[in-house]
Amino acid sequence: MIKYQNYKYYKLPITIKPLKYGKLIVNVDSMFVVQINKTNIALIHEFEKINKVKIFKEGDLIFEYSDHKLEDGTFIRVIDNKKFRFENN
Question: Is-contact 69 77, C-beta < 8 A?
C-alpha cells in the first residue's frame, strides 16, 4: 500500500517508482503520464539519479517537484525550496 505526503492539501505518493503513483496512461522512453485519482495526473520524467514530477489537477499545473534518488532506496523530495527525506518506506 502506498503512503502519501500531504502537501498544500494534496496527497502526493511517497515513492520513487513512477508506476506506483497510480494508473499508467502513457509511457514513452523515460516519461510517464500517470492518473493519481479522478482529477490529478502526474507527468514524471525519470532519470538515473532524479525524477522530475509535475502534478496537474483538471488539466492545470498545480506544482512541480523533484525526487533525488540515494543509494539505499532513500530519496529526497524538493518542493518549493523545501526538502523532505523519505527512508525505509
Answer: no
